[in-house]
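The protein record quoted in full:
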Amino acid sequence: MPDLISIGECMIELFSEDPMESSEIFHRSLAGDTFNVLVAAGRLGTSTGYITLLGDDPFQTYLKACFVKEKIDTSQVRTIPGFNAAHFVATKPDGDREFIYYRSNSAPTHLTPDDIDENYLLSAKILHCSGIAQAISESSRKTVLEAAKKAHKNKIIVSYDPNYRHQLWDFETAIEAMKELMPFVDIFMPSIPADSQALFGHDDTDQIIKQTTDMGVETIIVTKGHTGSSLYSRGEKINLDPYQTQKVVDTTGAGDAFNGAFLHGIMNGMSNYEAACLANVSAGLNITGRGALGGMAEGAVIYDLHEKYMEQMA
């Protein structure tokens, strides 16, 4: 049975190196924050499981095959009438990326609390929740909350990445959803500036930590892109430098690679600090490949670099 379970939506990704308006070729892949976290942890050796719904369109076979390839337990993945969400990603003339989403009323938006099997949750050490899973529909938001309540009741660690997306909802609704989940959260994983500006109205790490601990969360890890991360636990804050790479191809999924590695570390006897160092290495490697999974390394590579990174940080 899986040690790490997540709930959410995995989308078909269609990527082009050319601008959206002139591109003739798109390359197929898949992506979804909660799925990416499972892959990151799984490649390090964690057993993982996914709670999601697939539409019965032709993409379902590809999606499920990818889940199986990544050794994700699919016993809680159901197929229902409907379609699987997709998003297009293209490179703009200035080098930035452009996204177009087709996800409204997709299969995962029909998740309900009835999709949560409490006995399945009992097998896990950690339940990972996401703000995106909360945002895709009201019923999915209720499902995430119900899962967190059941996990908390059974003393299963609940981690939460608020992962704010302006395309999905407004600040006020996102803040409300975050606050309703926080009483059941043990590990909070926001990012600066994407989450901080939307959910807290500022980029002050110390204030984010204070506001979050006031909500009852004990462990906070704030990711800050190229400037590193800050870990708060048991009254102590530690700032960590990023794992530096000279080749930055695509930052997509770096936060998910970080989160998956951190959760893997603490489930496998690492201190929070050691796990955060492992997470920095995972995120640093991830940005050397295209897409969420293109640079996501296998465990042996990450572990080897982790030792060297820990020596540098000492």
About this structure: The chain has one domain: 4-313. The two ends are 36 Å apart (CA to CA). The first strand starts at residue 4 and ends at 7.
